[in-house]
Amino acid sequence: MICPVCKADMIVVEYHDIELDMCAECKGVWFDSGELELMLKTHQAEGIDEFLEEMRNSTDAKTDEKKRKCPICGKKMDKKDVGKEPEVLVDTCDRGHGLWFDGGEVVQLSHQFSSGTIGHPDNPAVGFLEEFFGTPE
Ligand SMILES: [Zn+2]
Ligand SMILES: [Zn+2]
């Protein structure tokens, strides 16, 4: 798959049966539809249903950030704000192909999990995210 930001070939990373496409250049991450959900649910993160629901229902974010194209269908993706303070801007394909996180955004999100802003501070998904993407600076 080609990175929607820098057009580099992404690498497939596998972790506990979940496959992610990561860009080694910009550190962006693509989750195929359902993979983020699967990952978080596998790790039994509390508050995840609410979080995913909120993300699906959130209105398009107002931002000047350039729209990215879905690596699967090539259509422009929508920007969604997820999480709280700071909100993380996620790109989603409205055809349901998946989610794109810019480099560093997954780390911000995992920080929100670890600080208890989303879900529960002890939830095991945090360990997963931090192991995978590193701890926030
Ligand atoms: Zn890239
Ligand atoms: Zn798509």
SSE layout and pairing:
Layout: E1 11-15, E2 18-22, E3 29-32, H1 35-42, H2 48-57, E4 78-82, E5 88-92, E6 98-101, H3 105-114, H4 124-133
Antiparallel strand pairs: 1-2, 2-3, 3-6, 4-5, 5-6
The structure holds zinc ion (2 copies).
Residues 3, 5-6, 8, 23, 25-26, 28 line the site of one zinc ion.
Describe it.
- The protein is α+β, with helices and mostly antiparallel strands and 137 residues long.
- It has one domain (11-133).
- Helices cover 28% and strands 20% of the residues.
- It is built from four helices and six strands, in the order βββααβββαα.
- The chain has a six-stranded antiparallel β-sheet.
- Strand 5 and strand 6 form a beta hairpin.
- The protein is globular, with a radius of gyration of 14 Å.
- The mean pLDDT is 79.
